[in-house]
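Open question from group meeting: does this chain pack into something compact, or does most of it stay loose? Before anyone orders reagents, we agreed to write out a predicted structure and look at it together. Recording both the input and the output here so the notebook holds the full record.
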Amino acid sequence: MKKIINTSKAPAPIGPYNQAILIGDTLYISGQIPLDPETGELVSGDIKKETRQSMENLKAILHEAGMTFENVVKSAIFLSDMNQFAQVNEVYGSYFNSDTAPARETVEVANLPKFVNVEISMIAVQF
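Structure tokens returned:
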């Protein structure tokens, strides 16, 4: 059965999608951009802060589903500039244990929603 996961502690969807969908034990989390859910404002000007906000949004959604970053098995990072990879990777990596970190891809794209610099999506599994 498909269960919709939404929390006010992450940005509300701005289109015809939900923050996450839980099917069985698997959680599919929509891409999160550095939008502050409290103010509705974008965090910008510093890729580390932008990445941190995206990760905090993901953390809130995981929490709403009763999971943590330890449950994440796959993630995708979309960057507007691959030259920012090291800084993004540093912040992203601080949320995981390197021994149990998920599979991942990181790609550079021409544009992202609201012209942000980073968007991150995840798949998590309850075990």
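Observations to bring back to the group:
Helices lie at 47-64, 85-93.
The mean pLDDT is 97.
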